[in-house]
Design a protein that fits this description.
The chain is α/β, with parallel strands linked by helices. 26% of the residues lie in helices and 27% in strands. The longest helix is centred in the middle third of the chain and has 25 residues. The protein is globular, with a radius of gyration of 19 Å. About 5% of the residues have low confidence.
């Protein structure tokens, strides 16, 4: 597992990097050795934010983030979220008798120290209840934001006039807008 740690507008000490590597490194029994794990740490006033994105060789991208006053508490909570997500994914794979190259589950003992009472073991099937198709006319990101506001949604998919690619604009929790584009 390749852990890439970066700080947004802050310098990371060796102690912080070591704590992140030690905690996130515990997930290595779930992941292929070549899996890339991106960790971003940022601080605003007394709030410490930790974001972790696991980019497997194949399979879904797994992501978790948390904001706390204490950075080490945020690291612990993010670890617990990732462990829970990987555990759920493991159960789905086992239920469907599928195999994955990038997430390893053979011989994995679950950590019993973590409380998973809020897991709904019977509700692991994903059910898509609605399919929607619509024509996308090319438009700018600004135009897409206006369309999103008009229909009072939190996101809007459109064909970007500059790149001719499908993109998504969305409302950010802290205000403002974001855009998701194909790499």
């Amino acid at each position: 597992m390749n852990i890439i740690i970066s700080g947004k507008q802050m310098e990371l000490t060796d102690g912080i990097k070591g704590a992140i590597e030690e905690k996130i490194g515990r997930l290595d029994y779930y992941l292929h050795p070549e899996t890339e794990v991106k960790v971003t740490v940022s601080a605003k006033k007394s709030r410490q934010k930790v974001e972790v994105t696991i980019i497997p060789i194949s399979g879904p991208i797994v992501r978790a983030e948390d904001i706390e006053e204490n950075l080490y508490a945020a690291i612990d909570i993010v670890y617990d979220k990732l462990n829970k997500q990987l555990r759920r994914y493991k159960n789905r794979l086992q239920d469907r008798h599928q195999d994955s190259e990038s997430i390893r589950f053979q011989g994995v003992e679950l950590n019993e120290d973590i409380d998973f009472e809020d897991d709904d073991e019977d509700n692991l099937d994903i059910v898509i209840e609605r399919h929607k198709k619509f024509d996308m006319k090319p438009m700018s990101a600004e135009e897409a934001v206006l369309q999103m506001e008009l229909i009072e949604h939190d996101f809007y998919m459109f064909r970007n006039i500059d790149t001719d690619e499908v993109s998504i604009v969305y409302k950010r929790r802290n205000g403002g807008y974001g855009i998701i584009e194909h790499e």
